[in-house]
Amino acid sequence: MNKKTLTIGFISAVTLLSTSSVFAAEVQEGMTDLQAEFLAGTVTPPEATDPSDTSNPGTGNDAASLALMRIPKLFHFKSTAVATGTAAIPLGDTSPTYYTEVEDVRGTHAGWNLTAKISNKLTSGSQGELPGASISMPGVSMNSVRGTVSNPTVTPTPNEAILLSNDSTPDLIVDAKDGQGAGAWQALIPADQLQLKVADLAKVKVGDDYAGKITWTLTAGPNQTPY
C-alpha cells in the first residue's frame, strides 16, 4: 500500500512540472499607456471662524492659486504706566494663537516670501507719534495645514528675529525658497513673546491711545536678499 502511494505521488509531480513548462512558453504581454494632467488649483478658504484663533480674518483673495489666507486682526498691548528708560510691553492677552497663513496651489514649486512693515506709525490723535517704537516677534515657527505634508526639505523658512521698526521698512517674515512652500502653511507667532518696544518711556505723552497698522505682503518667488 505504501509503495503504490509513493509511485502515484511521483507521477503527479512529473505531470505538474510538464504542464507548468507548457504554460510558461505561452506567456504574452501587452502594455497600456498612462497619462495624468495637473492644472493650477484654487485655494481653499478656511472656515469663516477658525476655532483656534477667531482674531484671524480671511484676506478675501480666494480665487487665486497663491494667496495670503489669514493675518492677525489686532495686537493689543498691555496698558503701561509712564516711567523712565526702555520698555518691552507684552500683549494684554497672550491666550490667542496668532498666525499668518499662506496657501500655494500653483503647482510650480517656485517659492514665495511674506514680509511685514509698520505701514501706519503708532500715533495718538492728541499726542502725535510714539517715539522709538518697534514690534518684536521672535520665535516664529511653521505649521503645515489642511493635508500638506510637513517635510524639512519643503518647509518654508521663518525669520526667527523679526523686529518691525517705525521706519516702515519691510521685514522678511517667511521665505519659501525654490522647491518649498507648496500647500497651506501657517506662520505661528508666539503671543507670549510678542512685544511692543519703546526706546524711552519718559518721552511718552499720556492722552489718547496710540494706534497704528502692520501691512503684510505676499510675493511670488523666493526672497532675493539675505536676512
TrEMBL record:
**Cell inner membrane among the record's keywords?**
no
Please give the Pfam families that the UniProt record associates with this protein.
Answer: WxL (PF13731)
Q: Specify where the region named Disordered lies, as residue ranges.
A: 43-63
Q: Which domain of life is it from?
A: Bacteria
> Signal among the record's keywords?
yes
The WxL domain, residue ranges:
26-222
Q: Where is the signal peptide?
A: 1-24
- InterPro entries, A to Z: WxL_dom
Q: Which UniProt keywords apply?
A: Signal
Q: What is this protein called?
A: WxL domain-containing protein
